Amino acid sequence: MTEYAEHQSLTAFADQTDNPKALGFDLGRLARIGDWMQRYVEAGKLPYAMTAILRGGEIAYLDARGYTDPDARQAPAVDHLARIYSMTKPIVTAAAMTYYEEARFQLEDPISRFLPEFAEPRVYVSGEGDSMVTRPAEGPITIRQLMTHTAGLTYGFFDPGPIGAAYRKNNVNYFPGKETVAGVTQRTAAVPLLFEPGSQWTYSVAIDVLGRLVEVVAGKPLGEVLRERIFEPLGMLDTAFGAPEDKLDRFVPCYEKSGQGMKRGEEAATSKFLGKQVMESGGGGLVGTLPDYLRFMEMMRRGGTFGAARILGRKTVDLMMSNHLPGDIASMGQSSFSEMPMVGIGFGLGGSILLDTAAAQIPGSAGEFAWGGVASTGFWIDRAEEISAVFFTQLTPSSAWPLRRELRVLTYQSLVD
């Protein structure tokens, strides 16, 4: 059996699957994952599905079904480039924590130390538009609150309320375009907070703001920071803000849910993610491959190291994978988008933390670190069972089908040792 750290090429990764039985999996039960992917593809609900499961750094399962481009009958390959959207967030948070380890900031530092536009935050009270009533925040927004989505920020395209409307009116979004993250962050600071910092949890542009903070701390663009501190040391050679035009043949289209099926969405050749990006969105701008993301996951699972690279200290990873909320997300009055009730699920630095499997009604292990992207990609890291699992497809929105929960069931039902 060969550890994933020793796989130096995509060909080796695709061709080498270790003995699942020796890794504690029942082969017949593991095969149910392929059947599950096939059902979604044959029903026209997904263009393709690709799943990889590692245990102890060894490949227990790797399979793909369907077509990345069903019209062209293009079969999925592990070197295909996909939009990972919000799976960018854990990577950016890890990059920020490399500066934390250099004592460049503390988690409880006000973000206004680096982003003065947030020096006097105001909190929404009532009303909307020009009639909106606000009050001064009782305390500053901290760096940890950005990392945990408790800063009082939101997403304009998810939030139907007055603050979401203000985001849309003021063009507070970090989508690919001709504007840098610095300009959008300025406008973000000009909109009132949804709630008092630290008092609630809501999914938000917080990691985009964190990405801008990293730029200020580092004195260089976020993409350069990620390349130097994460991608090159880990060998994530196909992950970047945007798909390079010379890799267009590997960049796949994205699909959209339509009724009980799907329709073509963003084409690869005309994608806003094609080519060098001006907007380097820390919240959702990365494009990459499944093997690249597994390298990041395995670094986290192994306590900050992968191969010869040491990205983070072991105790820093422990800190990231600890619940930083007073309870679960559901108890924090989640007031924005979520694919499911967040009962029994907390939040660490950059990703969710499974607290109670019975309360969450999903199998797994306490302490599991996870997140996903809006194109239905998802991952989790279970350090207790030494499992890294990742799922790739390209279908928006991620709430279309319960893929992540179903894959957890299928993975753990096949684990027998």
UniProtKB/TrEMBL annotation:
The cross-references to InterPro entries, in alphabetical order and at most eight, read: Beta-lactam-related (IPR001466), Beta-lactam/transpept-like (IPR012338), Diverse_Enzym_Activities (IPR050789)
The record places domain Beta-lactamase-related at 36-409
PANTHER family under this entry?
BETA-LACTAMASE FAMILY PROTEIN (AFU_ORTHOLOGUE AFUA_5G07500), BETA-LACTAMASE-RELATED
- Protein name as catalogued: CubicO group peptidase, beta-lactamase class C family
Q: Which organism is it from?
A: Thalassobaculum litoreum DSM 18839
